[in-house]
Design goal:
Order of helices and strands: HHHHHHH
Distance between the termini: 53 Å
Shape: elongated
Radius of gyration: 24 Å
Length: 172
């Protein structure tokens, strides 16, 4: 005895396998096939910001980018903001008036003898710190605190306005 409720779906599935769906994918900006463009842009942002803030040799090594990503900071706009903040904080040591503008052009701070910040060490601190249940912006703010030698992440209660992990789930 034929069972149409089973045979029809089976026949339809067999027809689909006989005519597989073809998908044409356009990689307009090249990030699906080769994602090096974002890393190159991130390195260029750090290079330009470094020069603008008086660090002519500021470079972001690939190892620092890898450490940022291993620590969960995969968005280039987050890691570039951290690198620029580190550059700015260092530049203020010799020139407190050198400020990053809200819009172009870039600042033209005088050169100085300070070495560029150790971006790799900063990213390593993020990795060692772990996520501690904090969202990435709170982790970055904690890592950019005034005490760069502190390796421990603050507890969520330490940062005003941050949520504990359970509260984060309820807040979303």
């Amino acid at each position: 005895m034929a069972r149409p409720d089973i045979e029809r779906p089976v026949r339809r599935a067999a027809r689909r396998r006989a005519h597989p769906t073809q998908i044409l994918l356009f990689d307009l900006d090249g990030v699906l096939v080769q994602s090096g463009g974002y890393h190159a842009s991130l390195r260029e942002v750090v290079r330009l910001a470094g020069r603008a803030l008086g660090f002519p040799k500021a470079e972001l090594p690939a190892s620092a980018i890898a450490l940022f990503e291993a620590a969960g900071v995969t968005a280039e706009w987050d890691s570039s903001a951290c690198c620029v903040a580190l550059l700015q904080r260092s530049a203020w040591q010799v020139n407190p008036g050198c400020a990053w503008p809200n819009s172009p052009p870039l600042p033209d701070c005088p050169g100085h003898d300070l070495p560029a910040p150790d971006f790799e060490a900063f990213a390593r601190r993020l990795l060692v710190c772990g996520d501690d249940g904090l969202p990435i912006p709170a982790r970055l703010a904690a890592a950019l605190s005034e005490d760069p030698s502190a390796i421990r992440c603050p507890s969520p209660a330490y940062l005003p306005g941050s949520f504990a992990p359970r509260e984060m789930l309820r807040a979303r």
